[in-house]
Write a structure and sequence with these properties.
alpha+beta, Nuclear Transport Factor 2, Chain: A, 2 domains, 4-stranded antiparallel sheet
Length: 176
């Protein structure tokens, strides 16, 4: 019986301090997760996807042409961003749009795939929020470590919490 009492006391301390350490990571993960779930509904987080002229890819301009048009429009609108290079293109055939995403500053240019008309130039905060959410904002190594610590820590908190809930029941039964 003394062993169970000591076990419960030790688990309480362990549970408390593990919970405090993980609380910061859980808070960041929870808040950014909520923001990411709203990214399609809140224009500040991620600009709404525009609609292009045609969904038929055979009528679209080449990727090289689209990226040149988007880059020129971006540099014209934001001359201070010259030298900011393209990170990736997100092609949305169902919308007739290509999103050109730049490496620095979370900038996005939406361009009509057929006409080459620039539909939108805006900041895209969802990528920054996602990198904060998964820890990659610091480094990929930190992401790997922090997400594993968070996952394992939550499992440990669940197990110790179950014991803290079930342990007193066992003690009451032993006393009877």
């Amino acid at each position: 019986m003394k062993r169970y009492i000591k076990s419960l006391r030790d688990f309480r301390k362990f549970h408390r301090y593990t919970g405090l350490l993980l609380a910061v990571l859980l808070l960041i993960s929870a808040v950014t997760g909520i923001l990411l779930s709203l990214k399609k509904d809140v224009d500040i987080i991620q600009p709404p996807t525009q609609k292009g002229v045609s969904k038929d890819l055979s009528t679209w301009k080449s990727v090289d042409e689209l990226s040149s048009l988007a880059t020129n429009a971006f540099y014209t609108a934001h001359p201070d961003q010259k030298g900011n290079v393209i990170d990736r293109l997100d092609v949305r055939p169902s919308k007739g749009i290509a999103k050109v995403l730049f490496k620095e500053g979370n900038w996005e240019v939406q361009i009509d795939g057929t006409s080459g008309e620039v539909k939108s130039i805006a900041k895209r905060y969802s990528d920054w929020i996602e990198s904060l959410h998964d820890g990659s904002i610091i480094s990929d190594g930190f992401k790997l470590i922090s997400m594993n610590v968070l996952g394992i820590g939550v499992l440990i908190l669940m197990c110790s919490g179950i014991w803290l809930w079930y342990g007193p029941k066992v003690l009451r039964e032993m006393r009877r």
